[in-house]
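Annotated sample (chain length 324).
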Amino acid sequence: MNKHLNTMRAAVLHRFGGPDELIHQEVDVPTIGPEDVLIGVAYAGLGEWDAFERQGGYAEMLNLESEFPYILGSEGSGIVIARGEKVTNVDLGDQVYAPAFLNPNGGFYAEYAAVNAKYVSRIPDGLTMQEAAVISGVGITALRGLEDVLQLRDGESILIFGASGGVGHIAVQLAKAMGVRVFAVASGEDGVAVLKKLGCDAIVNGKDRDISSKARKFAPSGFDAAMFTAGGDAANTAVNCLRKGGRLVYPHGIRPELRIPAGIRAAGYNGEPDPEIIARLHRYISQYKLTVHIDHIFELEDANKAHTALQKHYVGKICLKVNP
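Output written by the structure step:
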């Protein structure tokens, strides 16, 4: 880390576009306001939404004025280096993690990130610095869908499609914590292997032609609920495994769009962070010892390679190592 806190290494964009637009260079350390925390970043998490942001998707969709150089990174972990005078929830030297979606001060693909303290939490016992960096975005998205939108109840059955992805493999653990019977559809044999460690009641490979008959065995009258984190032919087949009046949720932005049959209540939603859901996820992590599977770890200077990997098959999450 730089001893004179004025410049830092970061992966920056000078314009929106493909992975190659991510350039590793020195930039100014962000300044903190009275309610901000300056985090010396250890690890940064990558999400599919980072690619959308890199392409200028959010700037266009939300009509944002984007300033360059632009630093991505909507989640991360590290150590509190400095804090504004109004900050009381964390102390200097604390190991912390935070979501920082579309952070006006710049994201976590940098040695330092300035984040509003209301998003910053101490890392719970049992979670590594790496896991903490990558759990916020997918954890909040999974929890919002299961608890707030689906309103899952103890004893219900759920089909989780895309269960070995970032959101999916946290959703599986949360649903089990809520007392729900979980039927997980994974992507590939590596996805199946990861889910076997997470206590699902049944797991199938999404490439398996036999999803429907296995689903019928598991829930003969159809599933009460479903979460889809991906679309496509297999997803459209699986949608038909819900019972009449069944509830289905999906995070906004999944492609191709799902074909929802009549009689199913479907809702898309966003996984935006706020202090209430951050605290709720934190309690689940602590109480149920949630874990995160990290498939690849890239160095900060290889952020462009990490973004290329986002477009390929992987299980769980991808992570950038900044300053462990």
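Annotation: The mean pLDDT is 95.
Annotation: Residues 129-149 form the longest helix (21 residues).
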